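Objective 1b. Sequence-to-structure analysis of DUF726 domain-containing protein.
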Amino acid sequence: MKKIIPRISTRGYYDLRYGKTIKNNSYFLYPKKSFDKLIGSKELVIVIHGLRNDNAGAIAKAVLVKKRLLHIGYCFPVVGFSYDSNTTGAHLLKHAKRALSTGQKIAIKNGRNLGMFIEYFKSISPKTKIRLMGHSLGSQVILSTVEYLAKKSKNTDIVESAYLFGASITSDVPSSKKYGHLLEKIIKNKIVNYYSPTDEVLHWAHKSKFVKGPLGLDGAIGKPISKYRQKLVHPKNHRFASYASVLPSFP
């Protein structure tokens, strides 16, 4: 029997067609006992997937990250964050814009959910370093989580570091007045952006004006905050597996 990857889930909390909130719950943990065992861990990585992932896809992304990290010598626990990103019609070109817009709405709302988990876990395991790893739309979840956490002064430096792959948030975020100081406040160590000018999905999204200037395509513009780093990578395509395969080291 395969070992179950623990996951923080908000599946079924949001409408897949329009992004309307269905449940105001915070999140649920599966299996709960697995999270009890994580208390006191030196570090914890939370993997946040992108658009067009059902629950099985979310689990698969966490598994591939765990395998890659073990391969490059990182042995601390990895858990998945599973949310309603398999929006209606996301696989069809004629519905792509609406499906992406819905996905973005859901990703923004999930900042509260993931933020609440981080607050909870740090309250029971204060010495654990939490690292966030997001792919594509997962970068929006991370940004919205930072926004949520920044509302409370006690959350300063609550997240150790964040890693973005094929990020779909805009290229001005690391240098913007709106988000720059929030990232500086919440992320203790560093924010690393793995970008690829040959990412076909981000190129299409930019050209189609669905996402204007994705951070994961050409990196940041302006003068980014001091904790921001970016690394040029050459994945085969936009898939999380392709980005994970070119990850040279961690953290």
